[in-house]
Write a structure and sequence with these properties.
- The protein has 3 domains: 112 residues, PAS domain (Beta-Lactamase); 163 residues, Reverse transcriptase/Diguanylate cyclase domain (Alpha-Beta Plaits), CATH 3.30.70.270; 186 residues, Alpha-Beta Barrel (TIM Barrel), CATH 3.20.20.
- 46% of the residues lie in helices and 23% in strands.
- The strands form 4 sheets. Strands 15, 16, 17, 18, 19, 20, 21, 22, 23, 24 and 25 form an 11-stranded mixed sheet that branches. A 7-stranded antiparallel sheet has the order 2-1-7-6-5-3-4, sandwiched between helices.
- The protein is elongated.
- The relative contact order is 0.06.
Length: 590
């Protein structure tokens, strides 16, 4: 029989078996090499099936997750790979599940943390789908790496790039970036911000007398003192040497001036001790507005710097406001004229007392005998000058306490005249504004006490108002001052409440009877739901604390109706009563 065909077929089968074995051996070798490779690389690797169950974990993955492959196999990867957001520490959905659902690569390089046994590891991770030849998903491969050290180092370098190494304050780079941001925002939102430029007056004396170590320690202590009196939204930066910058966000000129004067007083009261020596220093402060009209941010810084220079030229340890389109000499001349005019007005009594009614909303049919005192200056032609024109200058030249005292003494004279003529209402309440500087004036407090004791006018007729900004700028002195007035029987009102945006934290520490809600939030409550919610919350917290609330800037009936609905106690504004001279309100004859 011819068996040649069978022999050839057998030879072919033997060759095919050898070939298949070679292929099998090669595949086994490749699998072993892949396994060794995955076990050797620095990255952690986990593979899963299409349901997200673990099929493989390399040793690095076991170390980083804290689980062995044998314990994790055939269990869902989400049980072993728990990811949170680095800053908030809130849980993030397992990226493997997201990858399997979207059948797309999912990667994160910046803000993932792996939660493991009570600790957090900063990681980068990526997940890719595993597809067969037909494009059907078979599973996923997760690759992740521990970057805790490198990310911490990067954060440290970023911090150093934006902070002064000596004081830990923001540096000039961060300050200028924030300044540009505020300028851009003011153009869009029409919000007013202010920049303060501070230059220590006697720093060189300390540096030259005691050396650079003493100078460095002085800068650190001054930085801490300045920072503790600012709002969280404000940015304090060291611009170089003994120069500092402060950005006051959403702050009008009056409040910026009050803050600047408070900072000046803090530095003036500061005593620096070094070994057996003690130093008193001062600070000159320039203020410039960020209104959105400036061409570029550097102009604002230059304006504040120039204002600071003028403050130094005028005698140091003072505050100077930059005025647009005015040279240093003309500014100086104008301000010198204001000094003269204010002194002349004080000497000659060239002021006029006006009153504006504060109406009880629950009894609108009966005009309230509750008034706020408003001041006007009378010029040489008998024209009335509004307070916004001369009070900032009075603040700048430390004349505001003298004006406060003039107002108080003349109010007492007017009330004694009313009492003598039997015209003094039984339920009268006169609200008198006090500046932040007056809070530190012990002689003014004594004068008020003496007048209360000698005038025969009940202390209950008086309510003293202080702005929220002035109160929180020097909380300790303000609290002590107001407590003593309250102990005499006077009432206390906190004016412009809400403007400081940190109000509730300080409110419980102040001896207050009335909250005057900042008119900025009141004037638009008929059209703005946010303002309405803000007024509602202030009123509620006031009522809970047993305080009466007063809404300012009440211009029309619509606003008044909403205030009544919200339960606000009192209203004040042109829609209630226009400011009228004291004499006309009570029909007094000169």
């Amino acid at each position: 029989m011819d068996i040649s065909a069978n022999v050839n077929r057998e030879k072919q089968l033997i060759e095919q078996v050898k070939e298949n074995k070679a292929i099998s051996d090669k595949l086994a070798e490749e699998k072993e090499r892949a396994h060794v490779t995955l076990n050797s690389i620095a990255d952690a690797v986990i593979t899963t099936d299409k349901k997200g169950n673990v099929l493989f974990m390399n040793p690095v993955a076991e170390i980083l997750t804290g689980f062995f492959e044998g314990d994790a196999r055939n269990k869902n990867v989400a049980h072993f790979y728990k990811v949170v957001h680095e800053s908030s520490k809130k849980a993030i959905p397992c990226p493997v599940a997201t990858c399997l659902e979207k059948q797309d690569i999912i990667a994160n390089e910046t803000d993932h943390c792996l939660f493991r046994e009570g600790e957090y590891l900063s990681i980068t991770d990526s997940v890719a789908p595993i597809l067969d030849n037909d494009g059907q998903i078979q599973g996923a491969v997760l690759v992740f790496r521990d970057v805790t050290h490198s990310r911490s180092l990067s954060a440290k370098l970023n911090w150093q790039a934006l902070h002064d190494p000596l004081t830990s304050l923001a540096n000039r780079r961060q300050f200028e970036a924030k300044m540009k941001d505020l300028l851009e925002r003011s153009r869009i939102d029409n919000l007013l911000h202010h920049l303060l430029y501070l230059d220590l007056d006697q720093f060189k004396v300390v540096n030259d007398t005691c050396g650079h170590d003493a100078g460095d320690e002085l800068l650190k202590q001054i930085s801490a003192s300045l920072g503790s009196s600012l709002r969280k939204a404000d940015l304090l930066a060291r611009l170089g040497g003994d120069e500092f910058g402060i950005l006051l966000e959403s702050c009008d000129a009056e409040h910026a001036l009050a803050i600047a004067n408070n900072l000046r007083q803090i530095v003036e009261d500061f005593r620096f001790g070094w070994k057996t020596l003690s130093f008193k220093i001062g600070v000159s402060i320039g203020i410039a507005a960020i209104s959105g009209n400036e061409a570029k941010a550097s102009e604002i810084l230059s304006a504040a710097d120039a204002a600071c220079y003028i403050a130094k030229e005028n005698g140091r340890n003072r505050v100077h406001f930059h005025q647009l389109n005015a040279s240093a000499s003309s500014e100086h001349q104008q301000e010198m004229q204001w000094i003269s005019r204010l002194h002349t007005a004080l000497d000659n009594g060239a002021f006029e007392l006006h009153l504006q009614r504060i109406q009880d909303i629950s009894n609108l049919s009966t005009p309230s005998e509750h008034y706020e005192v408003l001041l006007r200056m009378v010029d040489n032609n008998g024209k009335l000058i509004p307070p916004g024109a001369f009070l900032p200058a009075a603040e700048r030249f430390n004349l505001i306490s003298s004006i406060d005292q003039w107002v108080i003494e003349n109010i007492f004279k007017k009330l004694q005249q009313l009492n003598k003529s039997k015209k003094l209402p039984n339920n009268l309440m006169i609200a008198i504004n006090l500046s932040g500087l007056s809070m530190a004036n012990a002689s003014l407090l004594q004068r008020i006490s003496d007048l209360l004791d000698s005038s025969g006018i009940p202390a209950s007729y008086f309510c003293f108002e202080i702005t929220e900004t002035a109160a929180i700028s020097n909380l300790t002195k303000a609290t002590k001052f107001l407590q003593q007035l309250r102990a005499k029987g006077c009432k206390i009102a906190l004016d412009d409440f809400g403007s400081g945006l940190s109000s509730f934290a300080y409110l419980k520490d102040l001896p207050v009877d009335y909250l005057k809600i900042d008119g900025y939030f009141v004037k638009d409550i008929a059209a703005d739901s946010t303002d309405r919610a803000f007024v509602k919350s202030i009123n509620q917290i006031g009522q809970v604390m047993g305080l009466k609330t007063i809404a300012e800037f009440v211009e029309d009936q619509a606003i008044l109706d909403i205030l009544a609905e919200l339960g606000v106690n009192y209203a004040q504004g042109y829609g209630i009563h226009k400011p009228t001279s004291f004499d006309d309100v009570f029909n007094l004859k000169n």
